[in-house]
Specification:
By secondary structure, this protein is mostly helical. The chain has 8 helices and 4 strands; from the N terminus they run ααββααβαβααα. It is globular.
């Protein structure tokens, strides 16, 4: 029952947000175009519900010549690819705003496991253990406010599983408001890496 209500709320929230934020979209689009050559939006193949594929939308934060479908942490020197506007957009997570379109289309939810890249089968396989691929991926989620880029795959999937077990109105609200605090603190954002090696070792052992 909650899944149906959640989808209705996601549709309404994304529609209202797109209308209210349209001036911000225009400002950011202009900044991106003036900052570097290339399209305003960036599309990328991601893993959705039931491991089907869809195209995720983002504001472009990297140069047009950046290799496609490669996670930032696998680039040898990601800072050389990220644009000036992109650094701000990524730090504030404003680059994710176009995913409101994905939510409106029914490909994503406001809250849920973050969609993995099409070639991140290791993460998708790990999520299968917890049923985290059985729901729509989210704009933000439980793992996002508990480590984000710093988390190794097994811990990220485990947190996604915790979300599945506790999914409901109050837990979604907890994730929603927790996201704003994480953004304000810029928590868990690691360009060019997934956190320190020592931290990853410690987390993996837990």
């Amino acid at each position: 029952m909650y899944i149906i209500i959640k989808r209705m709320l996601d549709f309404l929230l994304s529609l209202i947000a797109l209308i209210l934020l349209s001036p911000l979209f225009l400002i950011l689009a202009l900044w991106i175009k003036l900052d570097s050559k290339g399209p305003v939006f960036f599309k990328q193949k991601r893993i959705g519900k039931d491991r089907t594929f869809f195209q995720i939308y983002k504001f472009r934060t990297m140069l047009a010549e950046t290799p496609d479908d490669m996670p930032t942490h696998l680039l040898e020197d990601p800072d050389t690819f990220i644009t000036k506007s992109g650094k701000f957009l990524r730090k504030t997570s404003l680059d994710e705003l176009p995913q409101l379109i994905n939510i409106l289309k029914g490909e994503m939810a406001v809250i849920g496991p973050r969609p993995a890249l099409w070639n991140q089968e290791d993460l998708a396989d790990e999520r299968d253990k917890y049923g985290a691929n059985d729901v729509l991926p989210g704009l933000t989620g439980w793992a996002q406010i508990n480590g984000r880029d710093e988390l190794p795959i097994n811990i990220k999937a485990k947190l996604d599983g915790e979300y599945i077990q506790n999914m409901g109105v109050w837990f979604d609200l907890r994730c929603f408001f927790g996201t704003f605090f994480s953004i304000l603190k810029s928590e868990g954002v690691v360009e060019g890496g997934t956190g320190t090696l020592e931290r990853n070792k410690n987390i993996t052992k837990q």
